[in-house]
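fyi for ur records
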Amino acid sequence: MQLGETLKAHIVQWLKTNNWEYSEWAYALIVAGIFLVTALVLHFLLHSVILRWFKRSAHKSQIPWSLALYQHKLLSRIALVFQGFVFLVQARIWLPKDSDIFSLVSTVAHLWILFYLLLSLFSLLNFLEDIFRPASQKRNLPIRGIFQSVKLIAALIAIIFSLSLLIGKSPVLLFSGLGAMTAVLLLVFKDTILGFVAGIQLSANEMLAVGDWLEMPKFGADGEVIDISLTTVKVRNWDNTITTIPAYALISDSFKNWRGMTESGGRRIKRAIHIDATSVTFLQPEDIKRLRRAALLSDYIERKLTEIEIENNQTKIDLSSPVNGRRLTNLGTFRAYLRMYLKQHKSIHPNMSQIVRQLAPDANGIPLEIYAFSNDTGWANYEAIQADIFDHIFAIVPEFGLRVYQAPSGYDMQNMGARTDT
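which gave:
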């Protein structure tokens, strides 16, 4: 005799002893009461006693893994899976297996267990992601994308098993039908598949990692990468807006990763000032005498004067005409000063390129470009270093008899008109 039939016989005997008439409804109400009481007691013990004790212990110990375990609700979902198993065991004990009520309760219990097993797996993967995230970022592993792929596959398997329970067919039949649905699945999950492949390529080639500075004008992205998921990459722009980029777009399109600049320890300064071409001239003796007092120029001037004198004496050319022989110019001396200034500047990287070059003249004058690298890659510090350098350059230009070109403004026109009237 089955255990359920034995228990049913005891309930019938108990009803007769208390002079109550037995019926299927009375039996069903008693079984439902047993189910309810058992469920309430078990839920109270698991969630209000055991899990609450674990919560207090986790907060008291402040151990990262125990806090993560609690935050992702892994234990509470495992407890709900256990409750589903208890419910299923009760159904097999109290209900006849050939009854419709048993079939309904068994299906609900199986769906309950399957659902919370899936959620428990999600919680476990989230927990593992939190634990292994620091190591994965150092090794540039796409751990988030891998876990999301596992979640997707697990969800598909859970859906297939759920459908098999509801329609009463073997899941093997549903799995065999996936072959015919492959084209549809590829179309539906196109972005997911492309994103997964792109994530592997980005990781394998070390093209992008969380924390990198990404610039991709096509998508309006210019900021720090804060998340790389299975299908998207999130970028926090410098104005604190968030840009979401499809992962596969980073493979099909070009983007700029500033990680190399950060790792090199130097950030490029590339900016030009425009010199008024009419202010360029040869240095006069009084100019040379004044500039000799500059600590950065004294050696250069002495060396150049000696070099020029030797060459002019060798050629025996008539120096009474300015067009004959070699002479020092204010622009060339200014370039030499800027080279020495950058060389001794404490915020300029000494092991990277330092160039002061003259570009092709245009309608705005003669561009004199500073090309160097600061030894601080932080944005605010870099801008401060660059501004300090050009503050000094603009202030020192008149000492060489040069003028910075600036298009006439309304104020200039007004002053010109006032002088004309006078």
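Residues 100-139 form the longest helix (40 residues). thats all i got for now
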